[in-house]
Design a protein that fits this description.
Blueprint (H helix, E strand, L loop, with lengths): L1 H20 L5 E3 L5 H6 L3 H12 L5 E2 L2 H23 L3 H15 L4 E2 L1 H9 L3 H10 L6 E2 L3 H23 L5 H11 E2 L1 H4 L1 H20 L25 H19 L5 H5 L2 H8 L5 H23 L4 H27 L20 H9 L1 H26 L2 H4 L4 H8 L12 H29 L11 H26 L4 H23 L11 H20 L4 H4 L3 H5 L2 H12 L3 E5 L9 H4 L7 H7 L13 H5 L5 E5 L10
Antiparallel strand pairs: 1-2, 1-5, 3-4, 6-7
């Protein structure tokens, strides 16, 4: 069996090495045949300026991206410079437009249609129609002095001229770089990409399965964690550091520099063509690899936890939901020209659910789109708290969630690395609830700017949003007050902080709505808020840190410190849920297995020794603590909270 494991490991390492080498073994040569594909990846208005720059580079050979991409970026910069020279409105052009407007208006000092047309006529031909449309609101406006009219014309023409210019220049060069790599790549991969798909994806998966297969025939019962603190891979050794560096680097490239991993993306083109009818994107590649990793490492979980029926079913569950709900159903929806939706991904984890573009996509999709929109609202407002009341966070975090699925499969070898200190718990509570507050404020700001004012006749408008938010704050305050009155477990500082924060937000919303004429709730541009959240939380925290730090901080970094949905469910689980881990402290021998393997950083042994039930908000009910206990001290239970343990 050891020999079989070594063979599987060798196959996997060969496939993994080939995967890493793909972006480094390609060369590039721009040809006449590839030129149209590159031009189509840029704005139509810029293509005439970019084409001569690219033609100068036809036939040149580039040994790698680090030589090829700078040359393409130089071509883009040259094209943008030429576009600016052709269309940029300098001071002389602006003064000429203002002078024409003044000469036509005469002494009336009113920018009538004739004066407006005279100013437009001084512009380059291509700019006249769009700028006339942009500045049509200025027609028939009167000014006190000729200088004021001239200043208004120059200011508005300059601003709209910049808009016109930005629409024609090439802003993001990433689509061009991706197209260039795909259509001008040379070398073994671009000659036979299908072969590399089989060698890397299929071969690597097969190697991982062969490595895990012998564990099914280890006759000794129980869950084994032998030697994990002596392994370089699972105790922050060199292998673990290299693995962490790869994961961090992968997410940085995926989110911010996808043009440098075009070969990885093109590797799954055959599957994307079959499922979507188009070449793969970075997100299709990521979703597919994510699913493959969960399936392969899920088989490892099935082998490792084969003596525990709970863990067998739980592993099958996360594998099913990832394949069906997170990967296949969105592809089917895309083929049907419907919004790609992961129906199990609830707000606020799905933080963009209430973004204007997402709401508009659902509204434009007809009855099915409205159903999916209603389902998402129902899931967040009713389904999540109701299921958490009956089953705790485990129904989602350990059985359904894609983040949890990766943590429980790929991250399982690192679960013992979670920090169990009191300091870590304090940081966790402040950080995860801060992210939740951030997500709520962002959602309110986005919805406020998306909804129409009350005077426009819509039933759901900004006023109804403010009233709804007020009702939620009052209801939350009542529930917390009632819990504090009965249990005295919140503490006055926490209680008044929560209530004070809610009332402060409500007060700002009411003031903004009734006194201020601002279109921005909380005085922020909602677009800027969502951009900041997407970068800091959606990319850096959830991806780069949340997964890349598995080998350093354990497998639930994101779930423990950052997931806003985990914080939301944690509040329900902590204060109003039938789920708990009960203890039989009289049988505890203080071996510490439970605390060691708690991925959420809970010192389970301390609870067991005191005979206390574990109702921590962070507990995801994975059940490993109960599975590794040699005395049966711990049990996952759903039932009325009697406040008592199972101590006999």
């Amino acid at each position: 069996m050891k020999s079989l494991q070594h063979i599987g490991l060798g196959i996997f390492l060969l496939a993994f090495g080939a995967f890493l080498s793909l972006p480094l073994i390609s060369g590039y040569q721009l040809s006449e045949d590839a030129l149209p594909a590159l031009l189509e990846s840029t704005p139509a208005e810029a293509q005439a300026f970019l084409e001569p720059e690219l033609r100068e580079r036809i036939g040149q050979r580039y040994p790698h991206k680090f030589a090829y991409y700078p040359a393409l970026k130089q071509a883009v910069e040259a094209a943008n410079t030429a576009i600016a020279k052709a269309y940029e409105l300098d001071d002389a052009a602006l003064q000429a437009a203002a002078a024409a407007a003044l000469a036509t208006a005469g002494t009336s000092l009113t920018l009538d249609s004739a004066a407006h047309a005279a100013a437009i006529a001084t512009l380059p031909i291509e700019m006249r129609t769009p700028l006339a449309s942009y500045t049509a609101w200025m027609v028939d406006r009167s000014y006190d002095t000729p200088e004021a009219m001239a200043q208004a014309v120059q200011t508005q023409f300059a601003a709209k001229g910049q808009v016109f210019l930005s629409q024609r220049q090439i802003g993001d060069a990433t689509p061009l770089l991706n197209a260039a790599a795909r259509h001008t790549g040379t070398g073994p991969f671009w000659a036979r990409p299908g072969l590399f798909f089989w060698l890397i994806i299929v071969g690597g998966s097969l190697g991982g399965l062969i490595y895990s297969f012998p564990a099914f025939f280890d006759g000794m019962p129980g869950i084994k964690h032998n030697g994990i603190y002596f392994s370089s891979a699972t105790n922050r050794g060199l292998i673990g550091i290299l693995m962490g560096a790869f994961l961090v680097g992968f997410y940085i490239l995926l989110y911010f520099y996808p043009a440098y991993i075009t070969e990885w993306i093109a590797l799954v083109d055959p599957l994307s063509q079959a499922l979507r009818g188009e070449a793969a994107s970075q997100w299709f590649m990521y979703g597919f690899l994510y699913t493959v990793v969960i399936l392969v490492m899920g088989v490892r979980m099935l082998a490792k936890y084969r003596h525990s029926r709970y863990h067998q079913i739980r592993t099958f569950s996360v594998m099913f939901f990832q394949v069906a709900f997170a990967f296949l159903i969105p592809q089917i929806l895309y083929l049907l020209n419907l919004p790609e939706v992961d129906l199990k991904n609830a707000w606020p984890l799905n933080y963009y659910f209430f973004f204007d573009w997402n709401l508009q996509n659902h509204l434009n999709a007809g009855t099915i789109g409205l159903f999916m929109l209603g389902w998402g609202i129902f899931l967040a407002a009713v389904g999540v708290p109701l299921l958490t009341y009956f089953y705790g966070k485990r129904w989602y975090c350990s059985w359904v969630c894609g983040c949890g699925a990766l943590a429980e499969t790929l991250g399982d070898p690192y679960r013992q690395l979670s920090d169990k200190s009191l300091r870590a718990w304090q940081v966790e509570r402040w950080l995860i609830h801060a992210v939740l507050v951030f997500a709520v404020v962002m959602t309110l700001a986005v919805l406020y700017t998306f909804l129409p004012p009350a005077g426009e006749g819509a039933r759901i408008n900004r006023t109804s949003l403010v009233i709804f938010a007020g009702a939620v704050v009052v209801a939350l305050g009542f529930l917390l007050w009632n819990h504090e009155r009965r249990h005295h477990s919140l503490g006055r500082p926490v209680f008044f902080t929560i209530i004070g924060t809610g009332l402060a937000l409500l007060g700002i919303m009411a003031w903004n709505h009734t006194v201020s004429d601002s279109q921005h709730l909380f005085f922020f541009d909602s677009y800027q808020v969502r951009t900041i959240y997407g970068f800091l939380i959606g990319s850096i925290f959830a991806g780069v840190v949340g997964t890349g730090f598995y080998p350093f901080m354990g497998n639930r970094v994101w779930c423990r410190f950052g997931c806003p949905l985990a914080a939301y469910m944690g509040l329900v689980q902590r204060f109003k849920s039938r789920f708990r881990i009960t203890t039989n402290g009289g049988q505890c021998i203080s071996c510490g297995n439970c605390s060691t393997y708690c991925e959420q950083g809970i010192d389970v042994r301390a609870y067991a020794q005191r005979g206390q039930n574990i109702v921590r908000a962070s507990c995801v009910g994975c059940g490993v603590c109960a599975a590794v206990c040699p005395r049966g001290v711990l049990a996952l239970e759903n039932g009325p909270d009697t406040g008592e343990s199972r101590m006999t």
